[in-house]
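Quarterly update, task 2.4: adenosine monophosphate-bound model.
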Amino acid sequence: MQVFHTISGLRDSLSGHRIQGQTIGFVPTMGNLHDGHLALINQAKQSNDIVVCSIFVNALQFGLNEDWDKYPRTYDSDCEKLRSMGCDYLFFPDDKEMYPNGLDTQSRVICPTMTDVLCGASRPGHFEGVTTVVSKLFNIVQPDEAIFGIKDYQQLAVIRRMAEDLCMPVKITSAPIHRETDGLAMSSRNSYITPEERPKVTVLKQVLEQIASQIEAGEQDFSALESEAKAVLGNQGFKVDYVTISNSKTLQPAAIDDPDITVLGAMFTESARLIDNISLKKK
Ligand code: AMP
């Protein structure tokens, strides 16, 4: 695997592959790689000749009081994992390479729909940071395909919408949620969870599954389902950010007759904010 810290270095190498007609699959990450990330790399490898991964802890998508400073940075072990997966290129730029004119004056990509609900409501500016950095990375790598995890459901939906709205010549592909054996969705932020609360955090997935199975059984009172789930999380000692039954595409509150519904939840533990989701198709 070759590692590039500069845009020009990566572009020079990738142009050779493009001239030969090879396809490029791309997996953007913030590092501290776990098996969920590596499954994305594997998926990219299945359908492309060349795989590029990026690691960049993007300050633009972190709020002022969020964890940009303490976000786990594990470059050496990340490189080892990527090599073992057969990743071809790692793009590992620093802040100056990505934002040479500083953050404040950086041009932004705004996706006005879907970004002020769910995670966007409690993390103002977050998705603007995501769409901006992902657009930059798409322009740098110019991939044929980019793979994103369903774990970050709203991010995936926003990026799909951005690529469609801006006619970006890239296929956006989703990858299933990778979980620990007890069901907790893998996340780089799981290292923030304390040992005491760790056994209890699986309750998030459980309440989402409970809602999904009740809707599948015909329950139509969505707001009652949401309230019950929030109460269960609260009783376990977690602060609820949201539990919402949404239209899978628009992310607006779901109507009873919506064909595609996703149940999304976010909660705060003592020192982590955890998200999860489950999609269902009504019979
Ligand atoms: P991150 O490094 O957390 O920004 O994530 C990089 C990519 O990996 C995003 O597309 C995430 O949705 C995806 N990802 C993170 N965690 C998981 C997981 N548990 N299962 C599948 N994909 C994931």
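Highlight for this quarter: The chain has nine helices and nine strands.
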